[in-house]
Amino acid sequence: MTMSNQSKAGKMHRNPNKENTFLFLSDINSILVSGEDTNGEFCVVHCSVSENDGPPLHIHGNEDESFYLLDGELEMTLGDETFLVKSGEYVFAPRGIPHTFKAKSKKARFLVTAYPAGFDSFVKELGVPYEEGMETQIQPPTPELIQTLIQVSKKYNITYPGL
């Protein structure tokens, strides 16, 4: 199915596919519902991360995020609390609260819903269209990549304490 499986009534049926999937830093992210679909109200992104992968501690100034873990385990830090998230569990990360995660299983798959949308545009801007096997070529981030991340993040009101 392609990303444009939407009826005039706004109903849709989507799956991760070549048209909506990006290598985003070290994650494979598929934009299932974009801000364009919801008039900017929210977006839903399917994320797949490998063991020990995850973003630096960061703060979203514009959107709240929710995480629903489909499979695997994540160690999540939300504010001053760190906890293990297991398959079938949900986490809400309000805007303005520092948070991060790290995959503790070989793979972890989860859904991120951001309210309002914006995270989907961030993924598109920083990511590259995903091709099977790209994740095996991931290298540690270069200083240039970190600088690009920080610069693009400013546009989306995302900051990184400690970077």
UniProtKB/TrEMBL annotation:
Matching InterPro entries, A to Z?
A: Cupin_2, QDO-like, RmlC-like_jellyroll, RmlC_Cupin_sf
- Start and end residues of each Cupin type-2 domain: 50-112
The family database entries (SUPFAM superfamilies) matched by this protein are listed as:
RmlC-like cupins
Q: What Pfam families does the record tag this protein with?
A: Cupin_2
Q: Which domain of life is it from?
A: Bacteria
Q: What is the protein's name according to its record?
A: Cupin domain-containing protein
Organism from which the protein derives: Paenibacillus catalpae
